[in-house]
Amino acid sequence: MTGPSISTAAGVFDALTAGPPDGRPVLLLHGFPQTGLAWRRQIEALAAEGYRVVAPDQRGYSPGVRPERAEDYRMSLLVADVVAITEELGWSTFDLVGHDWGGAVAWWTASAHPGRVRTLTVVSTPHPGALAEALRTDDDQRARSRYMIDWRETPATEQRMLADDAALLRSLFAGRVPRASAEAYVRRLSRPGALTAALNWYRSGRPDGTIDVIEAPTLYVWSTGDTAFGPVPAKDTGRWVDGPYRFEILPDLSHWIPEEAPEALNRLLLEHLRAHGPRNHHAPPAVEHNESD
What we know:
CATH superfamily: Alpha/Beta hydrolase fold, catalytic domain
Number of strands: 10
Order of helices and strands: EEEEHEHEHEHHHHHHEHEHHE
Shape: globular
Number of helices: 12
CATH architecture: 3-Layer(aba) Sandwich
């Protein structure tokens, strides 16, 4: 896959890009342990409807933006990356979509920059306020989140995940991600320093700020088979959205919704975008990609 990169003051981000340059802009943020490739099916569907879609490989996942210190992955800098990327693209407003850690960044970005986020869609990850409350009060969510504490160990976690041809890293996908995509993620994170950079998201400490309720029209999609996020914070997320809110539960799916159930997610995402903002009037465009493996 080839295509343009996105240069910012923080460094150069790899990205997947599709859709007409003047289409309504949509930014897609991936999570751990993936890259922008996780959104391939969403990129195709959105571009076919005339949206301009960009899915960057976030800080640490792009070799051109890979600082060594854990504190360089704190939330304020991850949000600043979103702002820098969209400014470089010339987007004054945009629709924002995130999954897993990308979902957390999306929540924080929508809170910090409400005037720029036209709509918000978050997959799997509850609002950080709802998650924080659940970690204080819900034994189930505390048990689900225990891995986050374990993964702060260094370099023990990297060694465990990459041992035996990255068997543990592969196992995280639980067979729910296409094999070719899973292998691409493993190849990327097996490179020197890459997995440590990705795990630094967990090691950066508590967010350096406070998050507010969300004003943008928000779609939150959660699955009952998600092992990372339980029903308590998922169902409580609506209390943290002041704007129009839609909560969709997908039964019997795992944490990896964008790749496990792309058709269902694409339908919900397109419905949400059409309901809140201008329509696109472009013919289906050709797709261009950029992913350095």
